[in-house]
């Protein structure tokens, strides 16, 4: 029952503040384009600290970071293309909604989920 | 406020019109939280009353719910414009404050359909809250229809279904909405996908229905309604065993309609399932009442009555 709303699960920043943030791509990320137009994001995957310690313990040189790949679908590619380090999330949501004739709320959920997922993988940051 | 200058929300028997910028934030079977850009704007819960309606019982229940949050609701006399907007209901006003939150609301009882509703408008202290819009919302509030049908209207979809079908499941995900209704013999599934241009790609609607919509083992026939591409699907009946199982009610039977609304970049779908052959009249009734807001809507279907 949300009556009144629970305070314990409140987000660290408000929705309004979050939408005012600007997503910025990790500068170590590279991108390539498939024939279909979809983007593949290449990003360095650091060795797990526990594995790195084990390698050092065994007297081996630390291995170079692996190259992780993430293929974006058409919608992900569209959002990725809008991330230029200058546009705020709110502007990206508005542009995405207009481009695909989506409801504002639906576009907001789609874009924020996408940005959250890329942020979790370290491909994006917010400022 | 009317559906023309606001947005109609209809859910499980309740209907009202809210400002166009408000959207459902939380949706339960008999519970809605409507949000504005600033956060939660209003909340409504409702249900049938068993036996005699008692406003003191409802106030006690409300007190129990708010006590854990540090709020103590008190009786509050609604202003005259509220009372004028709520002449169809027996009305008891309440108000509460808890830290940075505050709300005013009303416990309502409709003597005609014996539904009790608790509606509240959030008004954080020192800020302009949703209470300023309350009169217009309350004036549009209805909790029953006289035509034996139930209206459903959230986000951009609208449906008008026979009242025997109860909501069983619902999911609103970015790009995919799904509502399922059941009566004793049949299940109705309503779908909405977007953006259609991306989801369809170079597929036709039949292929889309088989893959994305998960309607495999059905055969589809292309039709067009009002210039919109549409496919009609029915269960494949090849094979004696399959036909026999279907006729004995051992195997569920489905009928589907999937149509593309190019002007709105949406795909809509209906799947009716049951143990025996689907009555085409059921599908036609559902198809006639289901669509996008301002699209294919029966005249007066969603006007408050």
Can you describe what's shown?
- The complex is a heterodimer of chains A (127) and B (305).
- With 127 residues, chain A is an alpha+beta fold.
- Chain A has five helices and five strands, in the order αβββαβαααβ.
- Chain A has a three-stranded antiparallel sheet, covered by helices on one side. In chain A, strands 1-5 form a two-stranded antiparallel ribbon.
- The radius of gyration of chain A is 18 Å and the shape is elongated.
- The model of chain A is unreliable at 1-8 (pLDDT under 50).
- Chain B has 305 residues and is of the alpha+beta class.
- Chain B folds into two domains: 7-140, 3-Layer(aba) Sandwich (Protein Transport Mog1p, Chain A); 156-292, Protein Transport Mog1p, Chain A (3-Layer(aba) Sandwich), CATH 3.40.1000.
- In chain B, strand 3 and strand 4 (31-36) form a beta hairpin.
- Chain B starts with 6 loop residues before the first strand and ends in a 13-residue tail after the last strand.
- Classes of the chains: A alpha+beta (127), B alpha+beta (305).
- Chain A binds chain B through residues 1-7, 14-16, 74-75, 100-107, 109-110, 113, and chain B through 23, 26, 33, 37-40, 43, 45, 62, 65-66, 69, 71, 96, 98-99, 101, 103, 155-156, 173-175, 194-195, 197-198, 201, 264-266.
